[in-house]
């Protein structure tokens, strides 16, 4: 891999190969028939093809095509240049795809194509800007506007008697554990485990005031193996013991 960015002209001659690094092919002009790991696509202006590392790919253009090609550098380069965008970039580069560019990305691609991309500073900064912009778009598309609290509440209620992990809730929300924790704290003002504890104790209160189940049984149903730990948690949460709370039926 001699350069981060390069301009390449494709003709009717069909090329087929693979390489150890991931690659992004941005259409500039013409139409390039592209196939990656058996998946076909057309690369035109404002479209890019994603080629994962070691993926067999083939391409050709009957009438000729010009593209800007980004040969993605090492893992160390991604982490150093992209920081918080590195994880999203890795995910983007894992799956073959043909993706549309937005207008700002298209302008950046055109500007780079007209620039001296053999200059290492322009190549490094240009590649980093392109990858960060694509990663940002991918993150927005895959993250819901709000966390699915109704689904999370249902999961907590269903599994209240069993150990619950933040990773289980993050999976329901379609997020990494770290990202879920940040989003959850931002949207609810609580950590995920504080929220789970509060939901369990609210359920316990409902059972205390709406059923005749023994306190030890209720403790087990909301995930407490120790009745004394359960009653202490109830007292801290509601200012009343479990027995006193039971007397205050609504």
TrEMBL record:
Single annotated GO MF: DNA-binding transcription factor activity
One Gene Ontology term, aspect cellular component: cytoplasm
Coiled coil: none
Keyword check for Membrane: no
Broad class of the protein's primary localization: cytoplasm
Keywords: DNA-binding, Transcription, Transcription regulation
DNA-binding as UniProt keyword: yes
Gene3D superfamilies recorded: Homeodomain-like (1.10.10.60), Jelly Rolls (2.60.120.10)
Domain HTH araC/xylS-type: 150-248
Membrane-spanning parts: none
Pfam families membership: HTH_18
UniProt-annotated location(s): Cytoplasm
InterPro entries linked: AraC_XylS_family_regulators, Homeodomain-like_sf, HTH_AraC, HTH_AraC-typ_CS, RmlC-like_jellyroll, RmlC_Cupin_sf
Biological processes, Gene Ontology terms: positive regulation of metabolic process
Protein purpose: Regulatory protein of the TOL plasmid xyl operons. XylS activates the xylXYZLTEGFJQKIH operon required for the degradation of toluene, m-xylene and p-xylene.
Protein name stated in the entry: AraC family transcriptional regulator
Organism: Pseudomonas leptonychotis
